[in-house]
Design goal:
The protein is α/β, with parallel strands linked by helices and 260 residues long. Helices cover 41% and strands 15% of the residues. The protein has a single domain, classed as Rossmann fold, CATH 3.40.50. It has a seven-stranded parallel beta sheet, with helices on both faces. The structure holds nicotinamide-adenine-dinucleotide (NAD). Nicotinamide-adenine-dinucleotide binds next to helix 1 and helix 6. The site of nicotinamide-adenine-dinucleotide (NAD) has 27 residues, from helix 1 and helix 6. InterPro entries: NAD(P)-bd_dom_sf, SDR_fam.
């Protein structure tokens, strides 16, 4: 069953890219959606888009690395609709791209906190509300969690994405008793703001000898970066009862980019 009628979802990083497309897709399938993003990337426009499609959404301006704010945003959704069925821990940054010897400890921390600690926080604060009825948690990792993507410069990002994979599997094991499924999505290059923000100055990358592959990607399947809407279809499937026997798995969505 792929309808999400009567279900409530929380999506982090919902103001842009994969999170935005997924929030809209879940709403189209009938879910009510809590939209979590930074204040400056507020999700008001996404809320309006969902409402224009006849759906319901609430916005929560939240830094996903702040435990108090994450707990509050979960509560906001539960207070609004009385339940929580789907959590999509998706917010993330590429962070500082630099060779390891030039990467500052604070830059390492920022990437790990924004991508990995945030995933732990979203799951942690959702569990009490999902325990009774079960549900589905989805985590956006990356193909970079399993291999390096462009030689070097993204050690912190890759470590955070590998951490999300390991954490997601442990969560799947631990939460199976509550019928909460946990799955990890590993996209290849997807056309969103994340790559533009990091790789906007290609000359800088050349200076530190990082081969530039983004944003074109080089997928054997389509020879171009994937679209957020293609990832949103997978998020919808993993959110729905159509995937009721799938948990603790990594799903690569990359047009075979990771096989190159
Ligand atoms: P995006 O930049 O379009 O969207 C990411 C969103 O997360 C933004 O709206 C941003 O404001 C939000 N965000 C960042 N830090 C936050 C914080 N501290 N608190 C709250 N919100 C925060 O990028 P995207 O490509 O849609 O990225 C979504 C996820 O997909 C990320 O985890 C990213 O690592 C992953 N991913 C992306 C690609 C790609 O090629 N685009 C590939 C693999 C994995």
């Amino acid at each position: 069953e792929t309808t999400l009628q009567g279900k409530v979802a929380l999506v982090t990083g919902a103001g842009s890219g994969i999170g935005k497309a997924s929030a809209i897709r879940l709403a189209q399938a009938g879910a009510k959606v809590g939209l979590v993003d930074l204040k400056e990337h507020h999700s008001e426009k996404v809320k309006q888009e969902i409402e224009s499609l006849g759906g319901e959404a609430v916005v929560s301006d939240t830094d996903v690395s702040d435990p108090t704010r994450v707990e509050e945003s979960v509560k906001k959704v539960v207070e609004q609709w009385g339940r929580l069925d789907i959590v999509y821990a998706n917010a993330g940054i590429n962070g500082k791209v630099a060779p390891i010897e030039d990467l500052a400890p604070e830059e390492w921390d920022q990437t790990l906190t924004t991508n990995l600690k945030s995933t732990f926080l979203a799951v942690k604060y959702a569990i009490p509300h999902m325990k009774k009825a079960g549900g589905s948690i989805i985590i956006t990792s990356s193909i970079n969690g399993n291999r390096t993507f462009s030689g070097f410069g993204m050690s912190a990002y890759s470590a955070s994405k590998a951490g999300q994979m390991a954490f997601g599997k442990m969560a799947a094991l631990e939460l199976a008793r509550y019928h909460i499924r946990v799955n990890i999505i590993c996209p290849g290059a997807i056309e969103t703001n994340i790559s533009q923000n990091t790789f906007k100055d290609k000359k800088d990358l050349e200076k530190i000898k990082i081969p530039v592959k983004y944003p074109e990607g080089s997928q054997p399947l389509e020879h171009k970066a994937g679209q957020p809407e293609q990832v949103a279809e997978l998020v919808h499937f993993l959110s729905s009862d159509a995937s009721s026997h799938i948990t603790g798995t990594e799903v690569f969505i990359d047009g075979a980019e990771s096989l190159l």
